[in-house]
Design goal:
Helix content: under 10%
CATH superfamily of one domain: Acetamidase/Formamidase-like domains
InterPro entries: FmdA_AmdA
Shape: globular
Largest sheet: 7 strands, mixed
Organism: Phytohabitans maris
Radius of gyration: 18 Å
Oligomer: single chain
Pfam families: FmdA_AmdA
Structural class: mainly beta
Protein name: Acetamidase/formamidase family protein
């Protein structure tokens, strides 16, 4: 069994870009587990209570230009380019509220449905024990929580957007990465420098409206290991 670590979310542990230049907030051995909480992707400081999203308070750690609120980076001892990182999702527990936004910007789907100019926001009360969510209109959905962003920075220096998915992870938005699943990613930089965030309480096969049920995560637990090649895992507990 590996060692269990806790990251206290806030300050230097939060960032809104991927970068190989960011120093790790934690260094772990292969097979160690990490527990942390997350903000929602928008850095919101609390649940939606009406009005414009632009006027909604954000975390004090947010700064202009940031993308998704990510926790990390986490360095893995011995991880080098050419290896593969194994990230096992042990637990993903959503916080008490979530937000879904549809329309209001010129995405392909919004243009197709004529919803570029008008934005609709749904506020969700989330029950992590029952795994259900209820919006302000009384609609109830089943929750299947996961992290939309898990990944490592490009090898190129500088700050890189959290928006695109890349070969080494990022904004994957894969609804199958729930507790009990495992993600394999090629390591792009020494140490890996893994980060995660963008909690989704529930999502379809894609963010057709533009978002999922975006939410903070009360508790995330991941076990991280490395391998020289798939099927030859080093440090697996």
């Amino acid at each position: 069994m590996g060692t269990s670590h806790v990251i206290e979310t806030g300050g230097s542990t939060l960032h809104g870009y991927f970068s190989r230049d960011y120093p790790p907030v934690l260094t772990v051995d292969p097979g160690d587990s990490v527990r942390f909480s997350t903000l929602d992707a928008f850095w919101f400081a609390g649940p939606y209570s009406g009005g414009s999203l632009d006027d909604r308070p954000r975390s004090e750690h947010h700064r202009e230009g940031y993308g998704h609120a990510l926790v990390g980076p986490i360095a893995i001892r011995g991880a080098e380019p050419g290896m593969v990182l194994e990230v096992r999702v042990d637990a993903v527990v959503p916080g008490p509220w979530g937000t879904t936004v549809a329309g209001g910007w010129p995405s392909v789907f919004n243009q197709r449905y004529g919803e570029v100019d008008e934005q609709t926001t749904q506020a969700w009360d989330l029950d992590a024990a029952a795994l259900t969510g209820r919006n302000q209109y009384g609609h109830t959905v089943a929750l299947r929580p996961f992290l939309g962003v898990m990944g490592m920075p490009p090898a190129e220096p500088g700050e890189h957007s959290t928006t695109p998915p890349r070969a080494y992870g990022g904004n994957l938005d894969c609804r199958e990465l729930v507790a009990g699943s495992t993600l394999y990613l090629p390591v792009p930089v020494p140490g890996g420098l893994f980060s995660a965030g963008d909690g989704h309480a529930a999502q379809g096969d894609g963010e057709v409206s533009g978002t999922a049920i975006e939410c903070p995560m009360e508790r995330v637990e991941l076990t991280i290991a490395r391998t020289d090649r798939p099927g030859s895992l080093q440090g697996r507990p």
